[in-house]
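Quick illustration, no need to memorize.
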Amino acid sequence: MRYYNRWAGNPKGIKEDISRCIAEVASDARSILTHQCLRKRGKGDQGLFCGIHAKMYKATEEFWCPKDE
């Protein structure tokens, strides 16, 4: 299970929603906080990404997302 939005004020983070893309994205342009992508998964590697992040992953092959724990 992956966890998102871990920081000092929320050390446990938020558990992965298995219906959404696994990419971790910034909460807003100026924030250091992150959250799980809100788009529906079903594309890319093992169907874990949304259409947008699947293209990014394919292009760079170095897409970062939280590790399973």
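The first strand starts at residue 3 and ends at 4.
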